[in-house]
Prior knowledge:
Elements: H1 19-23, H2 26-37, H3 42-51, H4 64-73, H5 80-85
Amino acid sequence: MRESGEHWRESAVCRQGDAEQLFGTTAHQDRAKVLCTGCPARIPCLAEALDKRIEFGVWGGMTERERRALLRRRPRVSSWKAVLTG
């Protein structure tokens, strides 16, 4: 059974692309971030990565390094989904 709220994955632009862009080198990740810019699933994707502390890959237009920095700057946020969609 699919977790509620994960239907955003069906509209994610990256589903059509090469997964190496999402998890590859910096150059690949830079190209993936461009794909994320116009993706209708960008916000819920990023929220999931932040809420679940996903460590690898580009999610919602942010690399793991960028997400770690954001989490350090805002350690008291308990629901990024609420912050980003609220």
